[in-house]
Amino acid sequence: MAFKIEECNDTDMDRIFEIFSSAFGHEHPYIESVFPLHATPQGRRLGGQRMLAFKKADPNTTFLKVVETSTGDVVALAKWNISDGSIPDEFELDGDFWESENEKEYAQHMFVT
């Protein structure tokens, strides 16, 4: 097997989120709070949309993918945040993904910490 590393494009983000969700499962409080229902079909669809929004909103973020060259399958990902020496604006975590305002506040805290 041979692999190559490429920068993700917008159409990769659903697969990127699927890998992200599978890799962390239900063992990481950050994933569970920021991406509720991430392991469900609806949660994966929403997660892919949100990852795309993150990708487009932050010029300091680069998503990379590892592609198996014989199949073209994306098998891994990396997300790099590299600033130009300045502190980037804080990205606001918002939406109606949480069942309660307390869950949303907890997710917001986890996101910026």
Explain what this protein looks like in three dimensions.
The protein is an alpha+beta fold. The chain is 42% helix and 19% strand. Strands 1-2-3 form a 3-stranded antiparallel β-sheet, covered by helices on one side. A hairpin with a 5-residue loop joins strand 2 (61-68) and strand 3. Helix 1 packs across helix 3 (41-57). The longest helix is centred in the middle third of the chain and has 17 residues, at 41-57. It is globular and about 45 Å long. It starts with a strand and ends with a helix.
Rounded radius of gyration (Å): 15 Å
Please give the count of helices: 4
The overall strand count is: 3
State the order of secondary-structure elements, H for helix, E for strand. Answer: EHHHEEH
Please summarize the sheet with the most strands.
Answer: 3 strands, antiparallel
Mean model confidence by pLDDT? 89
* First-last Cα distance: 38 Å
Report the helical percentage. Answer: 40-55%
Which residues sit in consecutive blocks of at least 5 with pLDDT less than 50?
Answer: none
**Fraction in beta strands:** 15-25%
| Arrangement of strands in the largest sheet | 1-2-3
Class by alpha and beta content? alpha+beta
Which word captures the global form? globular
Give a summary of the structure in a few sentences.
The protein is an alpha+beta fold and 113 residues long. The chain has helices spanning 13-24, 29-34, 41-57, 101-112, and strands spanning 3-7, 61-68, 74-81. A hairpin with a 5-residue loop joins strand 2 (61-68) and strand 3 (74-81).
